[in-house]
């Protein structure tokens, strides 16, 4: 009844469809319907429930309930009305009202970093998302975002050099989306918190450049490497989304590019922790004497 027999579809996941639900008391929800013909299963749903019951944070979409009756596998999640970050920056409809401003992009980058830091710093065991991407980020408004879709999460991580290590994942069990996946993870199958740091770096490049994670036959990280590793401010301007018309703060841009350079480095141990990224972005968001330098 709440979904009107699954009438209004508002999203598509790797193993599910998402429908709008009217809860009848002025509230709305998002019903995630896990589908077996899309590779979904009762285990996938229960794994996601297990993760969502462990976490509670303003930048994470909240679990409101779930159902395993009459052959259905359903999650009832908090409804976030303004679609995804992917829709906002990569579709005609998303850009039709106005272009996402630089200050909004910076604020969203901070919200995403906070959302990714929480499952690592507070949850026990550590939660690795494994499918960080712009289509999993729901916009509350142009300045605030919530992270969603924990269906591919992993509890705990692989320590190959430890007596308590788990068996590395096989190539067929590697989860993620092309363009965002850590190269080390692809090569070893070992899931550690640093694979989400890699994906976050790609998200930053999306916000900076306004481009999708894949550019032709190469990833966005590869496509922007020459520009973003330069020390020349004018070269950085070539990476910036042209739709911004140069309206970006130079010092803030340099911070985001610096993080985007560290996040995907080959040596995963050298990547920053998400908490460090949160602190760095917060520091650069303090009032600047010259708000627009480009």
Describe the protein:
By secondary structure, the protein is α+β, with helices and mostly antiparallel strands. It has two domains: 9-78, Phosphorylase Kinase, domain 1, CATH 3.30.200; 85-284, Transferase(Phosphotransferase) domain 1 (Transferase(Phosphotransferase), domain 1), CATH 1.10.510.10. Helix content is 35%, strand content 15%. It is built from eleven helices and eleven strands. It has helices at residues 42-52, 85-90, 92-95, 102-121, 183-188, 194-209, 220-223, 225-228, 233-239, 250-262, 274-284; strands at residues 9-12, 16-22, 28-34, 63-67, 74-78, 127-128, 137-141, 144-147, 154-155, 214-215, 218-219. The strands form four sheets. The protein has a five-stranded antiparallel sheet, covered by helices on one side. A two-stranded antiparallel ribbon has the order 6-9. It has a two-stranded antiparallel sheet with strand order 7-8. Strand 4 and strand 5 form a beta hairpin. The protein starts with 8 loop residues before the first strand and ends in a 10-residue tail after the last helix. Mean pLDDT is 85; it is low at 162-169 and 288-294.
Task: Describe the structure concisely.
With 294 residues, the chain is α+β, with helices and mostly antiparallel strands. It has eleven helices and eleven strands. The longest helix has 20 residues, at 102-121.
């Amino acid at each position: 009844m709440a979904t009107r027999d699954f009438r209004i579809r508002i999203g598509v996941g790797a193993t599910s469809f998402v429908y709008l639900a009217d809860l009848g008391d002025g509230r709305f929800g998002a019903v995630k319907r896990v589908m077996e013909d899309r590779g979904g299963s009762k285990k996938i749903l229960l794994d996601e429930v297990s993760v969502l019951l462990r976490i509670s944070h303003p930048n994470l979409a909240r679990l409101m309930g779930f159902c395993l009756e009459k052959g259905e596998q359903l999650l009832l999640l908090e409804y976030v009305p303004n679609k995804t970050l992917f829709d906002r920056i990569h579709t005609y409809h998303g850009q039709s009202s106005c272009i996402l401003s630089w200050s909004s992009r910076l604020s969203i980058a901070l919200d995403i970093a906070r959302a990714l830091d929480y499952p690592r710093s507070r949850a026990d065991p550590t939660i690795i998302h494994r499918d960080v991407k712009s289509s999993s980020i729901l916009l509350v408004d142009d300045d605030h975002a919530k992270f969603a879709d924990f269906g591919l999460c992993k509890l705990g991580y692989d320590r190959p050099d430890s007596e308590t290590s788990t068996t590395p994942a096989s190539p067929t069990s590697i989860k993620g989306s092309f363009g965002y996946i850590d190269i080390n993870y692809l090569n070893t199958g070992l899931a550690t918190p640093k694979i989400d740091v890699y994906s976050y770096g790609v998200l930053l490049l999306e916000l900076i450049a306004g481009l999708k994670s894949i550019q032709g036959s190469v990833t966005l990280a590869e496509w922007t490497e020459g520009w973003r590793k330069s020390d020349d401010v004018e070269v950085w301007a070539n990476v910036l989304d042209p739709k911004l018309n140069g309206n970006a703060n130079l010092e803030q841009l340099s911070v985001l590019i610096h993080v985007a350079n560290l996040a995907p480095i080959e040596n995963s141990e050298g990547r920053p922790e998400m908490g460090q990224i949160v602190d760095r972005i917060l520091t650069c968001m303090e009032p600047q004497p010259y708000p627009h330098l480009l």
